[in-house]
Write a structure and sequence with these properties.
The chain contains 8 helices and 19 strands. It has 330 residues and is α+β, with helices and mostly antiparallel strands. The protein has 3 domains: 1-75 and 176-213, no CATH class; 81-174, T-fold (Orthogonal Bundle), CATH 1.10.3980; 238-330, T-fold (Roll). α7 packs across α8 (302-308).
Length: 330
């Protein structure tokens, strides 16, 4: 269910009250906050503007967009385009929409740049580790090896001339979990811009965020990066202005077994959950980039990130050491 809060801000005052059902007068700004659940995540939007009708229309359209993407990318819905690919691409070259083809092309590029640490074919591993529709389990080594045989981005063959996807072997399965939220946030921002919105914050479960413009009187949208061991503490604070931030942490989805913590962030090359990092946050121009890059940085670690993080990106690391260390990547 969508929740809407509309507040009238009288600049330069910081206080507010429930807005009247009229257009804002000159010098006034409205703040509209909304949230919905879609694509298995909670999406929220905060926008500022001077036209209530336009703001509400923009927000509604943005949420229609995320629902549309759910119909395309969900691997939980048998009728989604992605599910159709998973069913048929091992049998034949399967034609897909230009949008999905472009997204898959980007995924393969992330895989190449990350030396395989990001891999959209990680689906079989997520299943044997119990993270698909579950909270996790410790699988037998034979199960891991069996899943690994069906994982690998090089098994996805794209034909740009015919816009088709083909799997090189049976059992390959695409999983959008490592990139879907970031892509959705970017698309929602695009929709808001089409409606003339210039100040907005869009968040997907608090882990993939884009700040457009800035709130009145601020240098950007203030976002705090939580301590991975204590949700009530903050390790860093950033101001987002026309940029994104995504975070991956072992606290998001995990289980304990044999005295160890196993998180859902998988190293697709070994078949085991990544170790050594508690959380990392990446700041980048696009949310699809920041979300995609949190995974290989988490998997490969700080030293690898120092040499491979794309130019212009920033990152905060919290490493799993006796003395917890959270710091910006230098």
């Amino acid at each position: 269910m969508k929740q809407i809060v509309l507040v009238l801000f009288l600049l330069p005052l910081a206080g507010g009250a429930i807005a009247p059902a009229r257009p804002a007068a000159a010098g006034d700004l409205l703040r509209l906050e909304t949230s919905v659940v879609a694509m298995g995540s909670a999406y929220s939007i905060a926008v500022y503007g001077d036209d209530r009708t336009r703001m509400e229309g923009a927000v509604d359209a943005a949420f229609e967009e995320v629902h549309r993407l759910d119909e395309m990318l969900s691997n939980y819905k048998p009728e989604s385009e992605l599910s159709e690919v998973n069913r048929h691409a091992s049998e034949r070259a399967f034609a897909v929409s230009p949008e999905l083809f472009g997204l898959l092309s980007s995924c393969l590029e992330y895989s190449r740049e990350s030396e395989g640490a990001f891999d959209i074919t990680v689906g079989p591993l997520m299943k044997v580790w119990g993270f698909y529709k579950g909270t996790g389990r410790l699988p037998h080594r034979a199960e891991i090896l069996g899943a690994l045989d069906r994982v690998g981005y090089r098994n996805v063959v794209l034909d740009s001339a015919n816009r088709t996807v083909r799997f090189a072997k049976a059992g390959v399965e695409l999983d959008p979990g490592g990139i879907g939220k970031g892509y959705a946030v970017d698309r929602m921002i695009d929709v808001l811009k089409q409606y003339g919105i210039r100040r907005a914050l869009v968040s997907a479960s608090g882990s993939s965020i884009y700040g457009m413009g800035a709130p009145p009187g601020e240098k950007g949208w203030r976002v705090q990066i939580r301590d991975p061991k204590d949700e009530h503490k903050t390790v860093a604070e950033v101001y987002l202005k026309d940029e994104s931030m995504s975070t991956s942490g072992n606290y998001e989805k995990f289980f304990r077994a044999e005295g160890r913590i196993y998180s859902h962030i998988m190293d697709p090359r070994t078949g085991w959950p990544a170790q050594g990092v508690l959380s990392d946050s990446v700041i980048a121009p696009r949310t699809i980039d920041s979300e995609a890059w949190t995974k290989p940085l988490f998997v490969n670690g700080r030293a690898w990130a120092a040499h491979h993080l794309p130019k212009g990106f920033r990152a905060v690391f919290c490493e799993d050491k006796p003395e917890q260390t959270c710091a910006w990547l230098q």
